[in-house]
Write a structure and sequence with these properties.
Strand order of the largest sheet: 1-2
Number of strands: 2
Structural class: mainly alpha
Distance between the termini: 27 Å
Order of helices and strands: HHHHHHHHEEH
Shape: globular
Largest sheet: 2 strands, antiparallel
Helix content: 55-70%
Radius of gyration: 18 Å
Length: 196
């Protein structure tokens, strides 16, 4: 899913956002044809100014999209590009979204997209933590914050029930299944229970 990727409001020249938005408007073959250029422009932007959080966001979205191509899309990539672009991975997507968050911790869309990525990887506690963060932030970083927060709420509703994040020193280690959750009640952070 490519919603919200490459957003660059306020626009910053050279962060890869404009090209990313163009790619989103294209059909699958044109989008694949633009993939190397999006990656190249974003890598160049990060090399020139590694403090542009939105550039890290665009590269993270690129990693996620390329890493999650289905069989038909991979065949199209072979036809259009001579193969799937190398180096893309979900782990790289997570790392780049985390860097974007480090640079712009209050940007709602960074948390939304990291949460979405963790959901695709079935990393439920991390997904919940990031989506919760997206919902709780003030709407100050983008004209689309309300939209991003609504998306985060919708994704939270789709998470498997019964998992709550367990963090030690700010690092999410995994999830616990709580007694209330087993009974279908709300999740609560608890210090000791069976790790899932």
């Amino acid at each position: 899913d490519a919603r919200g990727h490459g957003e660059s409001d306020p626009a910053r020249p050279g962060d890869g956002g404009a090209l990313g938005r163009q790619a989103l408007k294209e059909g699958p073959k044109s989008r694949l044809a633009l993939a190397p250029e999006v990656k190249s422009e974003t890598d160049r932007a990060i090399a020139l100014d590694p403090t542009i959080g939105r550039a890290w966001h665009v590269r993270a979205a690129w990693n996620r999209k390329i890493a999650s191509l289905n069989t038909i899309e991979r065949m199209a990539a072979n036809t259009v590009l001579g193969g799937v672009p190398k180096g893309a991975s979900m782990e790289n997507a997570v790392a780049d979204f985390q860097k974007a968050i480090e640079l712009e911790p209050n940007y709602v869309n960074h948390h939304l997209e990291l949460g979405r990525t963790c959901m695709q990887m079935k990393r439920w506690p991390e997904a919940r933590a990031e989506l919760d963060k997206a919902v709780s932030l003030p709407r100050t970083t983008s004209t689309r914050d309300a939209h991003y927060q609504q998306e985060a709420r919708e994704l939270l509703a789709k998470l498997p029930k019964g998992w709550a994040p367990v963090a030690v020193g700010g690092i999410i280690l995994g999830g616990v299944r709580t007694p209330l959750a087993k009974a279908g009640g709300p999740c609560k952070r608890t210090p000791v229970y069976e790790l899932g």
